């Protein structure tokens, strides 16, 4: 949304409105902006009001004064996408430019339970500060309802990593590092458990003299996932990849070094993402300081890069639901002899039979078994701990 024109009259009017508010602290719309702006931006929408606690209205105004300097400092409102969260600042892209915003204290405290008041991908509304560079250029006042959110668990509580993501693109490389089908399957399970569509891209096919990539791509296509082979070096598959990303918001998943940043630079020259080796020490340091970053694509859509974060975790998948997240298992499991079959050592198991007949890929089955034991361990710890 464009910045509001800031005529002298407008400013004067706001000051008057402010004084009036002071005399009527209980007024519902005590917002410190021009009433017209408020109406346009629909700032006191039901979602906004619903989260304001009783008695919070007066506090709300005090907070704004403290954060924005004074109420006179507000120059208009904006709406955009949170593209990065860095410390106490959030970069908000309104389509025209990026605004450096702080978060209204009320928002920060009300969501203390999930600790992620604003994450990359959130649609936010913000008040524009007048010249208050130190306090940030704006203050985020409202986070619009999330269409989807991607979460991870640190063992004790859930953290939201990114919001409004449509799909996960799992990226691997055929070599350097060697392709790890199990890791890809793990990401597919996590995406599926998070109700996100998934696609697979296998990079560095320029290093694949023997065309070993073909059966991998074929395996995922047979399962119904869009899959492609690519090379950031030769440009192979890059057009196909761009098509896959256009018009959607995509989270990139894949181990470090597979070429995520290089592929994005190839998809959109000009992104200028840093590529290459990151030392273990730097990588470790980045875990604490770097969160998901939302990159807008010129062709439409956006990609979310999550450096240093294991964005997709399967730990929250209930053990008895694991089979559901292997798409080729779903229609078969009901035919196993035992209803509680876990498809590992039981008699009359159609999954094991399908693996033997080649209907189910052995590598996929191995991934299932490995995840099954891992999740059993998670559950054992939960029960005993
Ligand atoms: N041979 C080859 N090397 C690549 C390709 N893509 C990326 N690389 C190299 O792989 C390394 C890691 O790439 P980077 O994009 O930083 O990976 P990221 O950690 O997944 O973002 C860099 O040295 C890149 O130059 C590719 O398609 N072929
Ligand atoms: Mg990278
Ligand atoms: Zn079975």
List the topology elements.
Elements: H1 8-23, H2 35-41, H3 46-51, H4 56-68, E1 74-86, E2 89-93, E3 98-103, H5 105-110, E4 123-129, E5 138-143, E6 149-153, E7 158-163, E8 167-173, H6 181-193, E9 197-203, H7 213-222, E10 227-229, H8 238-245, E11 249-253, H9 260-267, H10 280-289, E12 293-296, E13 302-305, H11 350-357, H12 362-384
Parallel strand pairs: 3-5, 8-9, 8-11, 9-10, 11-13
Antiparallel strand pairs: 1-2, 1-4, 2-3, 4-5, 6-7, 12-13
Helix pairs in contact: 6-12
Bound molecules: guanosine-5'-diphosphate, magnesium ion and zinc ion (ZN).
Q: Which geometry do the CA atoms define?
A: globular
- Beta-strand residue percentage: 15-25%
Radius of gyration, in angstroms, nearest whole number: 25 Å
Under CATH at level 1, the class of the largest domain stands as: Alpha Beta
Helical fraction equals 25-40%
User: Mind summarizing the main beta sheet?
Assistant: 6 strands, mixed
Number of domains: 3
Strand order of the largest sheet: 10-9-8-11-13-12
């Amino acid at each position: 949304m464009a910045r509001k024109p800031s005529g002298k009259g407008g400013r004067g009017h706001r000051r008057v409105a402010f004084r009036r508010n002071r005399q009527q602290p209980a007024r519902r719309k005590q917002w410190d902006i021009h009433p017209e702006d408020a109406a346009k931006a629909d700032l006191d929408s039901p979602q906004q009001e619903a989260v304001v606690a009783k008695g919070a209205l007066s506090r709300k105004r005090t907070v704004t004064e403290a954060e924005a300097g004074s109420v006179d400092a507000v120059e208009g409102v904006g709406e955009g996408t949170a593209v990065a969260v860095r410390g106490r600042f959030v970069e908000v892209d309104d389509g025209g430019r990026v605004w450096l915003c702080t978060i209204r204290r009320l928002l920060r405290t009300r969501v203390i339970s999930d600790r992620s008041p604003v994450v990359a991908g959130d649609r936010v509304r913000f008040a524009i500060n007048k010249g208050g560079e130190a306090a940030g250029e704006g203050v985020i006042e409202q986070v619009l309802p999330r269409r989807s959110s991607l979460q991870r668990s640190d063992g004790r509580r859930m953290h939201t990593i990114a919001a409004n993501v449509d799909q996960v693109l799992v990226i691997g490389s055929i070599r350097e590092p060697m392709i790890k089908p199990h890791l890809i399957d793990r990401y597919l399970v996590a995406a599926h458990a998070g109700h996100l569509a998934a696609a697979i891209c296998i990079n560095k096919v320029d290093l694949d003299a023997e065309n070993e990539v073909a059966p991998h791509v074929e395996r995922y296509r047979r399962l119904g996932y869009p899959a492609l082979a690519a090379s950031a070096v030769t440009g192979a598959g890059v057009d196909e990849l761009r098509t896959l990303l256009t018009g959607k918001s995509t989270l990139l998943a894949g181990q470090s070094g597979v070429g995520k940043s290089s592929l994005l630079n190839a998809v959109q020259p000009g992104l200028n993402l840093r590529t290459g080796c990151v030392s273990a020490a730097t990588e470790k340091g980045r875990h604490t300081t770097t969160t998901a970053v939302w990159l807008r694509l010129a062709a439409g859509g956006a990609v979310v890069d999550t450096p240093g974060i294991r964005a997709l975790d399967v730990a929250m998948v209930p053990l008895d639901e694991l089979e559901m997240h292997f798409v080729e298992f779903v229609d078969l499991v009901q035919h196993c002899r035992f209803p509680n079959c876990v498809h590992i050592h039981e008699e009359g198991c159609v999954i094991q039979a399908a693996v033997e007949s080649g209907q189910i890929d052995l590598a996929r089955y191995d991934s299932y078994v490995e995840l099954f034991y891992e999740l059993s361990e998670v559950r054992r710890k939960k029960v005993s701990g």
